[in-house]
Amino acid sequence: MSADLRAVYTILLIDFSYAVNNCSCFMNIGDEPILVLEQQGEKRDVVHDIFYQHFLKEAGL
Fold first, then answer.
1. Could you give the number of structural domains in the chain?
2. Which of 51, 46, 45 is nearest to 33 (CA)?
């Protein structure tokens, strides 16, 4: 994976998600996006654990 793509995952999971009041993250695969996580403030609800673990791995976390 390129360093740029790794940076995108890291920014999404660490910087952006905590900088906003609400955050929803989707995996765009197939015909319909799949909800991976929702976050309100510090509370993160993981809806799809397999994709979430993939995001963490790709971010190097």
1. 1
2. 51
Residue 55 CB neighbours (<10 A)? 19
Range of the domain at 31: 3-59
Q: Residue 4: how many CA atoms within 13 Å on its side-chain side?
A: 0
Task: Give the other-Cβ count within 10 Å of 50's Cβ.
Answer: 10
State the DSSP string of 1-61.
--HHHHHHHHIIIIIIHHHSSEEEEEE--SSS-EEEEEEETTEEEES-HHHHHHHHHHHT-
Q: What is the pLDDT of residues 2-61, one digit of tens each?
A: 677 677 767 777 777 777 788 888 999 899 999 999 988 888 899 999 999 988 888 787
11 with 60: CB under 8 angstroms?
A: no
